[in-house]
Design a protein that fits this description.
Low-confidence stretches: none
Mean pLDDT: 90
Oligomer: single chain
Number of strands: 6
Distance between the termini: 11 Å
Radius of gyration: 17 Å
Shape: elongated
CATH topology: Alpha-Beta Plaits
Number of helices: 3
Largest sheet: 4 strands, antiparallel
Helix content: 10-25%
Length: 113
């Protein structure tokens, strides 16, 4: 089992969801977050001086999958989120030690769905 965490641009969320659904990945958690990567925030000129805003709005996706869905999930996220520009985001794949479905108390891959 893996937990896939992706940070993407907000305007790419619908495209990513569409690609995930095509890959038969339907269980996702979406959060609005703030952060920055290499672009280091938004740069504006104020009274002739460059000022960098701290954080940029991003979307964080969390998707728990069984091993056979890891690559299809990654490919779907990349296909939906990629614009080729700085700030497209990142995908992190983390080992998931345990998953428990609260309603039935099922554990492991069965609990993921």
């Amino acid at each position: 089992m893996k937990l896939i965490v992706a940070i993407i641009q907000p305007h790419r969320l619908e495209e990513v969801k569409t690609e995930l659904y095509k890959a038969d990945v339907n269980l996702i958690t979406v959060s609005e977050v703030l952060g920055h990567g290499r672009q280091k925030g938004v740069t504006e000129v104020y009274r002739g001086a460059k000022e960098t805003g701290n954080l940029i709005r991003k979307i964080r996706l969390e998707i728990a999958v069984n091993e056979n869905f890891v690559e299809p999930t990654i490919k779907a996220i990349v296909k939906g989120a990629k614009t080729g520009e700085t700030g497209d985001g990142k995908i992190f794949v983390v080992d998931l030690k345990e998953c428990v479905r609260i309603r039935t108390e099922e554990r492991g891959g069965v609990a993921i769905g």
